[in-house]
Amino acid sequence: MIxxxxxxxxxxxxxxxxxxxxxxxxxxxxxxxxxxxxxxxxSGMLDYTYNWIESLKRTNQDDRFLVFAIDQGVVDGLxxxxxxxxxxxxxxxxxxxxxxxxxALWKSSDYRPITHAKTLVVERLLYLDIxxxxxxxxxVFLSPHIRETILTQMAQxxxxxxxxxxxxxxxxxxxxxxxxxxxIVTKQFMGRVIxxxxxxxxxxxxxxxxxxxxxxxxxxxxxSPYRLLDMMLFPNGNYYFRMNLPLKLGIQPLMVHANYLVxxxxxxxxxxxxxxxxxx
Length: 280
What we know:
The protein is an alpha/beta fold. The chain is built from ten helices and ten strands. The protein has helices at 2-7, 46-58, 72-80, 111-126, 146-156, 184-198, 205-216, 237-242, 245-248, 264-272, and strands at 10-20, 25-41, 66-69, 87-89, 131-135, 139-141, 162-168, 172-180, 226-228, 255-257. The strands form two sheets. Strands 1, 2, 3, 4, 5, 7, 8 and 9 form an eight-stranded mixed beta sheet that branches.
């Protein structure tokens, strides 16, 4: 599995500006980032996974990504589509509880364990010194410049380890789309998220993640190790489908997240918006 992961890593050069107290001057240095675009999927989300991959293809980003499969049906389905090198089974010993393979409705009994598994995968990747670009598969990529935009925004502010999309305007983050670097801080953060997830049978991964963020880091976003992505460029389902804000303001989003939509409404809304690309 390690070989599969490394074969799909995107190598980036990051430019960092720092102040050298000893030399009393600003210095610029470059460091290598091993970025992995990844998703965690069960068979119930295969149709959305195909659509997500098609959006990657249309934006010239389908060369390197990796899907972590919760069940064998995902491996079989993606292999049949020609993406056998971009899918790997999650080892059973990574899971903390058994997971369902069917489509899980939001807040159903099967939903929380599946979202929990996403955090477990991200933590493992961080310890492989990988910058994890995590995305849910009910997201549609609309621009080839998403990765460079996120990396640029992270580099603009020193000591930024994570960039999150937003759930509620500048109040809560969305755990379905973010980029996180492998640092001591982020490993501690993910470790606490997993501990909190293991301790609850009620809270979703997203609520747990927001709770841990608030407890670990200052409320002042200028001094915290994470930053928030612009909701016009990275809109959630409420902003894009219900309020139609980006288009009303003449802004072309880089991606669209079809959250805030439950069950069949998710696919129906994507089709109506012309964002359902997979024909099978």
